[in-house]
Design brief:
The protein has about 210 residues and is mostly helical. It is globular. It has helices at about 5-20, 25-35, 35-60, 65-70, 70-90, 110-120, 125-135, 145-180, 185-205. The longest helix has about 35 residues, at about 145-180. The chain has one domain. It has 9 helices and no strands.
Length: about 210
């Protein structure tokens, strides 16, 4: 089995990953505020399901295709960068709104909520590359079955991600209410979020394949 020290190190890395702002967090915030906690939870299930896809690919070695085939990696990378730019534009465009801003949207059915959550995470190139570059560092044949080690680490990451994002879903409304009475804070948060997302998009698009 994986030594406790290594497992704790991986858990810390997984926690740092989920706490970093990104498409998953922004989508869950927006959906939870606009349509309520139930919609946010269904969306979260879609996000977690996409992690199962990343884990499966990493465990059986299919994710390595993104390293071996430049076009496959580049296509995913640019799709992710374009999505980040779209999110940034939604925040920065004239009349744009923050995901914390309360607003009315036509409710989406559960199937669409789940699908959008899945696609948001599945099209996140960093998720695939993190499973390829970080997870293998904690898998060693001398510690037992490689697939079982990968499975344990992947489940650990998914539990951490689910727990943190579930907290986001539960508290999104409270955070939105805080910003609703402080329009200046809301404006600052919107520009900060847009700037961060735009920077991440450019950095991702220009990043060399490792």
């Amino acid at each position: 089995m994986i030594p406790l020290h290594d497992w704790l190190l991986f858990a810390a890395a997984a926690l740092g990953m989920v706490l970093s702002p990104g498409p998953n967090m922004m989508y869950l915030l927006s959906r939870s505020i606009c349509q309520g906690r139930k919609a946010g939870f269904i969306s979260l299930l879609g996000v977690v399901t996409a992690f199962l896809l990343h884990l499966f690919c990493a465990s059986v070695g299919l994710t390595a295709v993104f390293v071996a085939v430049p076009f496959a990696y580049s296509a995913l990378k640019y799709a992710g960068a374009a999505y980040l730019l779209w999110l940034a534009w939604q925040a920065l465009k004239p009349g744009g709104t923050s995901p914390f801003a309360p607003r009315q949207l036509e409710p989406d059915p559960p199937a669409k909520l789940f699908r959008m959550g899945f696609l948001t995470n599945a099209l996140n190139p960093k998720a695939a590359m993190l499973y390829l570059s970080i997870l293998p560092q904690f898998v060693h044949p001398e510690n037992g079955h490689v697939f079982l080690q990968s499975l344990l680490l992947g489940v650990t990451q998914m539990i951490i991600s689910f727990t943190v994002n579930f907290g986001i879903v539960l508290t999104a409304g409270t955070v939105a209410a805080f910003f609703a009475t402080r329009p200046r804070w809301l404006r600052t948060q919107r520009w900060l979020m847009g700037g961060v997302l735009g920077t991440l998009a450019v950095r991702l698009a220009l990043e060399d394949r490792r």
